[in-house]
Amino acid sequence: MSLQAQLEAATTAFQLLQQDLSKAVSSRQQLGSQLAENEVVQKEFGLLKPDATIYKLIGPVLVPQMRAEAVQNVDKRLEYIRKEIERVEKQIKEYQEKQETEKNKIVKLQTAYQQEVEKRKANV
Description:
By secondary structure, the chain is mainly α. Helices cover 82% and strands 8% of the residues. The chain has a two-stranded antiparallel ribbon. Helix 1 (3-47) runs antiparallel to helix 2 (67-123). The longest helix has 57 residues, at 67-123. It is rod-shaped and about 90 Å long. It starts with a helix and ends with a helix.
């Protein structure tokens, strides 16, 4: 495989990593929003009177829900979101490391390619 082909392949791989990283960052932002929203709901539960009625939106209808069930659902959701954030942050770190490796590979290939081009010019 020629240096030019290797350089093109490395550049394509780098661009794909950039896309994957962008998707992961977007996912992390969305999870952060969901986490904040659910933490607010959890705090609101603490402010409610013990006999307050809690409703759950199911489609276009508000349905009464047991307080214990609602609190448990939010707690489980928070736990799930936190685990997902952890997973996505790990993924982001891996993408960043792979991207840095690919970037170094591209720099080496560019240098080698430029040297090859200069040798050809010198031989002409």
